[in-house]
Amino acid sequence: MKLYCKVVAILLCLGTLLLLYLFVGNADEPPLKGAGETRWLPVSSGPGGRAHPLFAHFQPVRAAPEEEGAAAAAAQISKRQPRLSKNPGKRSPARGKFANVRRPGKQKHLKELPSLQWMHLAVVACGNRLEETLIMLKSAVLFSCRKLKFHIFAEDSLKPEFEKKLREWPSSYTKKFEYNVYPIAFSVGNAQEWKKLFKPCAAQRLFLPVILKDVDSLLYVDTDVLFLRPIDDIWSFLKEFNSTQLAAMAPEHEIPKIGWYSRFARHPYYGTTGVNSGVMLMNLTRIRNTQFKNSMIPTGLMWEEMLYPLYQKYKNYITWGDQDLLNIIFYFNPECLYVFPCQWNYRPDHCMYGSNCKGAEEEGISVLHGNRGVYHDDKQPTFKALYEVIRDFPFEDNLFQSLYYPLQSKFLDTVHTLCGRIPQVFLKQIEKTMKKVYENRVIVHVGANYRY
Fold first, then answer.
1. pLDDT tens, 298-313?
2. pTM for this one?
3. Where do the DSSP E strands lie in 56-116?
4. 202 DSSP 8-state letter
5. What contacts 24+ positions apart, CB below 8 Å, involve 305-311?
6. pLDDT exceeding 90 applies to what percent of the chain?
7. 374: closest CA among 366, 363, 386, 364?
8. From CA 156, how far away is CA 143, in angstroms rounded?
């Protein structure tokens, strides 16, 4: 009988050792690393699916398809950096043989990366401005680094044309942007009055903070604008706003003696020469939340409340429509405006009377604004040359061969004009930009494939 008890005791000990051996071996299995791998999960025993803290049994479980996808995505996103122990040399109780065990209720879920911050670009197109608008958008896509969202406000007849033309662009460029086409709409006042103010539909820009309520920041440009460097660079000015600034524009002129506002304006305007609204960077959230000082109500008015009364008060004195209204607003609220250097809104006025934009002379033109219809007549052939070269550039051709060199050739025919005598001002920044685009596409992306 004693011998029988000893045999039973030995068998029980051997069985216990075997279970411990199996338990330790399974606990060393690696966690899920990628699609198609096998991991070991505890079999739940008891209410709530909780496994026994010491003797939980393990069985292999194939990762579900959605988990495999998440794991594969996790592997592609980044490798987690090792976490340094707060007490070097001491092992945490949770680590060791059981470090790879994922207990129910404490599963680690794949965290989504923060979405890429979009750059928002708005434009208003009515009448015969379809082609101009498309060339502007083309210049934006050619050089931008981050993704863009286009907010296109257009007459109903132009919407199908925009959609058709944008779909024709090659996929290598269409993947860089998304777009929406909106109808022309004015939330306050007489819509017909607003629509006829200055150029057709131009007053629409005043209502962007009201319409685009889900957009925090926005760059508005006129249809006759061309980007000669990435939008990313002008977008970065948002970080330079102080606590009160909510918009940025460039001066209307650099020299008060020949500036329009300083000589002819019959209403208040910003600074000594006024500002030009053809390129306007806006923090829409701040605009929506600010009470603006004005000449009508001492306590201040919100943006939407202010627009129509302001127009009614000054409509007999304004010449440039919505731009004049913006000048009046920032005359009473100068602390709200950040002023761009002139190379970020370079117009014929900066060279047709002689070069008067020092920033462009030093850095080159960043944003070209061909107002007064200079893209379509022969008054300023330098501006027209840039427009035509970007218009005719085949999307996937070599930038230097099909854009820069034709531009140099066209500039030879403009040297008889004052603007044509300073070609370096027009070419300096676009040459830098194309070099950066080339380095990013060829040296970084292609060259990276041949490192090993």
1. 889 999 999 999 999 9
2. 0.73
3. 58-62
4. G
5. 305/188, 307/188, 307/189, 307/206, 307/207, 308/188, 308/189, 311/189, 311/193, 311/194, 311/197
6. 60
7. 386
8. 29
